[in-house]
Amino acid sequence: MPARHLILLVVVTVAGIAAWFAKERDRRGQKVNEVLAIVDAAYIEPVDDQSLVHAAIDGVVATLDEHSAFVRGDDQRELEAALDQRFGGVGLELAIDSRTGEITVTMPLPGGPAWQAGIVAGDRIKAIDGAMTSGMSIRDAVARLRGTPGQSVTLTVTSAGTAATGAVNRDVTLTREVVEIESVQGDRRRPDGSWDWWLEGEPGVAHLRITGFGERTAFELDAALSQIVAGQATAGGGLVSPRGIVIDLRGNPGGLVTSAVDVCDRFLDEGVIVSTRGRGSAAAGAVDGNPSDVRLATPGATVAGVPIAVIVDGLTASAAEIVAACLQDHGRAIVVGERTYGKGTVQSILPLSGGGLLKLTTAEYLRPSGMTINRRPDAAAADIWGVSPDPGFLIVPSGDALDRLARWRRQRDTPMTAETPDSSTNRPRAVDEVLAGALDALRIESGLDAELGGEKKTARDAHEAAPAGA
Questions:
Q1: CB count, 10 Å around CB of 310?
Q2: DSSP class per residue in 42-83
Q3: What DSSP letter does each residue of 389-443 carry, written as one string?
Q4: What backbone torsions phi and psi does residue 29 show, to the nearest 5 degrees?
Q5: Which end of the chain is more exposed for a tag (fewer CB within 10 A), N or C?
Q6: Is 29 a residue whose pLDDT tops 60?
Q7: Are strands 357-366 and 69-71 parallel, antiparallel or unpaired?
Q8: Does the annotation mark 23 as catalytic?
């Protein structure tokens, strides 16, 4: 057969296959359009076209997995704000008082509009731009408070007052600003709103609480580590140097994988941080399902040689699990607490032309050891998934202990004042049993506690021999 005939045959075959696929796609699209047209014409009541289309997309995505979603409206704005770590607002953290049902200020963000206007923790928000908050959800209140920087919003605020004056009501007009979300926090706030990184009652031990992984997390971590490495003036006027670091990832839902990689890179000189495996692995050069996207550490670790303990719980997920798994697999940290959530999949955020975002699961994460993080729907407790504490460091607090810890933590997250209670008998080790376990891990790891004797080597060998994710 002449070469030109062979070429023509290949072209016609390829064109035929492409036409078949296009026809199949059109056929599927025709069926969806047919259903939408019938509903639009014959349903008992008129239905908004856009609502039908959104419901159709929701239905498609719902058949995939629990993490894929069609994100729009307030959900889209919240997701973008969480990842960007900034939004237009007044700088208030709110909660609903369990006794009164009122929307109550848990903390004004230091330096924000509400802080500058004198709103304090415990104030109750009675109305927002004249709309009474009784029965209003936190989500609705937050949506009303957020908005374009430069625009104003008026709050009706009730403060506790004094025994003589009683509750005080006042209207406060605030101008919205760009509010930045802190993702790296310390042990407690100083009077000026900055963080004290040193754990109270534990000389030389720094406490880094990472609440999420956004665009600015690595920058915030660098700023904190620079202060920790340099040493800071203590209450007694001296300087302290880091003898241990606790990285607290409890309740951290994750965020950007690039941010998690950057955080891990701060503590490693070399080696795999995380890899991914997905449908496109073969096309990208992977063989037999092996990972195609491997993130490696770069030389130049910060706080090299300083012992690290990582605290996790059942709500530690996604990018936070990447950090815990990476530092555990490299023997760089001891993991303390509870087994993590097991959310080890990659969600790609894809903007849609008609508005909204498609959050689609496109791959799964693998630990440096090659073991999976993701917990599949049919996974059993005995299966390998998530990140488990190192042997001897599984600590599961009771519900009452967690409630006490939450109240204590809210107090420490509020800037200290002359009225702040003396905490000498209420220090972190005494209140937080999981944090106390992390401090014990640091002592074992560094040999700070001479009474432990030979336990240091035993614990270290057990840590290195433990299977990843066990």
A1: 30
A2: HSSS---HHHHHHHHHHHHHHTT-TT-EEE-HHHHHHHHHHH
A3: PPTT-B----HHHHHHHHHHHHHHHSPP-TTSPP-TTS-HHHH-HHHHHHHHHHH
A4: -65, -35
A5: N
A6: yes
A7: antiparallel
A8: no
Residue 470: name the closest of 372, 397, 368 by CA: 372
Which pLDDT belongs to residue 306?
93
pTM: 0.77
CB-based contact 125:141 (threshold 8 Å):
yes
Q: Which of 313, 329, 390, 432 is catalytic?
A: 329
The half-sphere exposure of 419 on its side-chain side, counting CA atoms within 13 A, is: 4
Which pLDDT band, with edges at 50, 70 and 90, does 11 fall under? very low
Catalytic residue among 313, 318, 413, 432: 318
Per-residue pLDDT reduced to its tens digit, 192-201? 888 999 999 9
| 457 has catalytic annotation | no
Q: Say which residues have a Cβ less than 8 Å from residue 338's Cβ, sequence separation at least 6.
A: 312, 313, 314, 389, 394, 395, 396
Closest CA to 255 of 358, 181, 347, 341: 347
Q: How far are the Cα atoms of 89, 203, 237, 356 from residue 439, in angstroms, in the given order?
A: 38, 11, 24, 45
Q: Which tens digits make up the pLDDT trace of 44-103?
A: 888 887 888 888 888 888 888 888 889 888 888 888 777 777 788 999 988 888 788 889
Domains plus CATH for the chain?
A: 86-180 (2.30.42.10), 184-465 (3.90.226.10)
Arithmetic mean of pLDDT over the chain? 82
* 3-state class (DSSP) for residue 335: strand
| C-alpha span between 438 and 445 (Å, rounded) | 10
List of residues 6+ apart from 317 with CB closer than 8 A: 252, 253, 254, 340, 341, 342, 343
Q: What is the distance of C-alpha 36 from the center of its chain?
A: 38
Question: Contact 325/390 with Cβ under 8 angstroms?
Answer: no
Q: Which among 99, 77, 98 has a CA at the least distance from the CA of 86?
A: 77
Phi, psi of 136 (to 5 degrees): -80, 140
Active-site pick, 262, 313, 343, 413: 343
When pLDDT is cut at 50, 70 and 90, the band that residue 3 belongs to is very low
Residue labelled with tokens 């690039």: 258
- C-alpha distances out from residue 362 to 63, 253, 276, 321, 448, Å: 15, 18, 10, 18, 45
Helix (H) or strand (E) holding 124: strand 124-128
Of 436, 417, 440, 437, nearest to 428 by C-alpha is 436
Residue 329 designated active-site? yes
